[in-house]
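=== Structure Prediction Worksheet ===
Name of assembly: unnamed complex
Input type: mixed (protein and possibly other molecules)
Chain count: four
Listed entries:
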Amino acid sequence: MKNNLRTRLYEIIFGTDTPAGKLFDVVLIYTILLSVCALMFDSVLESDAGLAPYLNYIEWFFTVVFTLEYAARIYCSPNRWAYIKSYFGIIDLLSILPTYLTLVFSGASYLLIIRLLRVLRIFRVFKLVAYLQEANLLIRAIFQSRRKILVFFFVVLIFATVFGSMMYLLEGPANGFTSIPRSIYWTIVTITTVGYGDITPQTPLGQVIASLAMLTGYSIIAVPTGIFTAELANEMRLEREMIKCANCGRRGHERAAKFCSHCGSHLNIHHD
Amino acid sequence: MKNNLRTRLYEIIFGTDTPAGKLFDVVLIYTILLSVCALMFDSVLESDAGLAPYLNYIEWFFTVVFTLEYAARIYCSPNRWAYIKSYFGIIDLLSILPTYLTLVFSGASYLLIIRLLRVLRIFRVFKLVAYLQEANLLIRAIFQSRRKILVFFFVVLIFATVFGSMMYLLEGPANGFTSIPRSIYWTIVTITTVGYGDITPQTPLGQVIASLAMLTGYSIIAVPTGIFTAELANEMRLEREMIKCANCGRRGHERAAKFCSHCGSHLNIHHD
Amino acid sequence: MKNNLRTRLYEIIFGTDTPAGKLFDVVLIYTILLSVCALMFDSVLESDAGLAPYLNYIEWFFTVVFTLEYAARIYCSPNRWAYIKSYFGIIDLLSILPTYLTLVFSGASYLLIIRLLRVLRIFRVFKLVAYLQEANLLIRAIFQSRRKILVFFFVVLIFATVFGSMMYLLEGPANGFTSIPRSIYWTIVTITTVGYGDITPQTPLGQVIASLAMLTGYSIIAVPTGIFTAELANEMRLEREMIKCANCGRRGHERAAKFCSHCGSHLNIHHD
Amino acid sequence: MKNNLRTRLYEIIFGTDTPAGKLFDVVLIYTILLSVCALMFDSVLESDAGLAPYLNYIEWFFTVVFTLEYAARIYCSPNRWAYIKSYFGIIDLLSILPTYLTLVFSGASYLLIIRLLRVLRIFRVFKLVAYLQEANLLIRAIFQSRRKILVFFFVVLIFATVFGSMMYLLEGPANGFTSIPRSIYWTIVTITTVGYGDITPQTPLGQVIASLAMLTGYSIIAVPTGIFTAELANEMRLEREMIKCANCGRRGHERAAKFCSHCGSHLNIHHD
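=== Predicted Assembly ===
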């Protein structure tokens, strides 16, 4: 009888196949989004003393809700220890702990920092993403291009180091380039075309080198785009070729196709 | 007789097939562009008291013109209520109403705000876009990629929330990150590589996190580009394949092709 | 005899097939680049009175050289009036005229402005570009996508007008959005992800709208890229298919291929 | 016997096939990265007098290590002079020389500049990159598109010159456009969408021209991306077509494929 309840709870909390399981996920995601919104309002209204008690109530409300969810998850897990040690198990614990600690310690300013760990819960929303077929195609293309993107990042960092050191020499602390790490920060700001303007080259030679860095960044933005586009086009082609007509055996039909474009028979799409 | 006039008016105002209908559309679009230009001059010269009466005359001129157009549209619509409730029906009303309200109320400063609703009329210009075959191809490609782009936006917003909360902790109100929403605003400014520089990280750790956010943004700019390019290439291929030679039945001709590249017969292009 | 000289001069100055013709073009391009460099130094050293006479000598040197070239071009043109009225004919005249006018008028400050017309001569350098096969491919791809890019520009301008008007309302003159045209300028700075930071939204709602404008701009940067990439890929495929093996008749060889990949015979590349 | 040692050393230092050779490369790369980190800390802590002796010890440590490596490389090279004159031979020498020169000269401030040459050593890290198959594909695609990218750079520079001169005229020294080179620097900052905001147009006409420059830059960012994407897609297709089934002879298999998709026999991948 009790086991039955655990199995039922497990299906609702961890599963997504039953209507109750789907509903639980949707409610959970809205609760997380609401708690993140509460955190935002918290940071906006912090200085307003009159609202402090209400913000406190809201904080405790979400803490109690997430504590109940955490307890339920531990209770119904077939392998409890595995859940507690898992990525989401740790996040679930970290997001409720800080509020309880405020009861013991009173150094509220430090705890506020830990309280923000709750934002990490927002990653649970990614679960929703996996429902969508489009996301899978994108994730596969990103996964295929991960090594190329890493190689690219590596090269950008080397360039940033060399350009940054050069600018540190040419401009020097007087013009804001106070150290090599700070110069590298400036180079990344420039190469990625963000361009805050908090540090800018002042000497003519520095401006020439900066222009070169900009044009380099402007051109190599093409590299990750090119990698990703080529991989995505490839994935889309593969997906098309996976659709095979059961009658004449031809492949290459569009994703949205309902009839074989060669023999006209209805396509019972089966991926193989 | 009267019905005849209504049908004729309907063809001119709503249709685009007759020469008069096309002319009406072109004149209307120029009038809208002119009225938008007038609004712009209005905002530039607002402080110049000497010009106020002239600007007033211009405003009433456009209001009367658009009122006549609105009346004519209601008059000749086969289904009047449907037009009034439609997207363009509401815009047409909203764009003339404010000027009349100034006769009743004198709180001009507040009405100026509503007057700007007239800018929404500029969306009528999109009707012109639909004439162009190129636009249709683009719209189809955007339509095909809409779900992928939405998934991407979703992921960017989650990243912005996490990065923004981190920066709020690391930099704090002293360095301009006065609240989480403001930090998220900064993150979006950074990830999209806009980089105003009104808020910039000052601490070394903040600059490291900011650099990571920039490189992330610089790489994921590839994602919408990749999605759109792959879809557009797909649409262009489909368009090519839709052109079929009537003589030998082969497909895959270029859009501009006049003769079949396989049998040399003239291509009577028919899409199927 | 004299006609012979004219024909010979014509081949050298206007032609590019003879060695002398090529040499003339190269020398001319270097002279133009040098004269542009002189203009730049001029603008840098303007305040330095000691250098003024030397800069004057240099200016007259280039003016005399370009006057001789202009005279020679008129002299040897088969159709003189056509050259004088042509785009380059007018530029050639405009680039020498200002220096002569300084002899007559002494309002030097105004003439300095016209003197800069000489920069337009730099467009002659594009002639060099046409030598390169790569440039032709690029130009063809740009030419193919011109209408799509125009449609895109149109849409961006409409969006900029609507976003700009909204920001003018929300932020107002107090926060730097002093007029609608200036707000549209800000919107273009934001949508193109340039982000100077000379005007930035200060109100929370303004920042939300600005974030939307940024994300829109960040996504639609995909559109011209997608258009151009798809067209370029198309052009490269067409170029490949233009290469046909004379022995077995197959197409689709790589641009750098020397032997047919199907029958192994040497490829005498002939485009058809 | 001695020759045996040289051959063994050569295999370790220059080779990458033996386990010892790979280990040497990895240790060397970490040493280089550490020495670059030391340089960075140096630039950060320069002002802190108490740390000066420790930083001095670290500098001498790396100098001795790189001196030993340099000596070993010369010792075991089959062709010593060729190594000394090679790109990496010169960098290896330049990166150790400055520290020794501080013993002879005491003008430390000038030597600090040369000391930064050590950063160039970081290019040795690229050797690691060549291990990765992904890098080769990227390098081949970049190599294929180098001429097109150069043509593009050329055109960007011409545009920057024309736009820069125009802005120099329109805005003038009063608004920060103090000379043509500085205006060209501004144009590059704008066209590449970096947008520092240290120089911004103030006049209405200047803002219109600036908007044009931004939209131009925003569109032509498509050009290098398009070039690179098209070339990369081409390289990926070629790589696919290089994989041929030994049984049925068909090509076009995916890189990760293990079995022929046509006859089902195991693919012994052999590129030809």
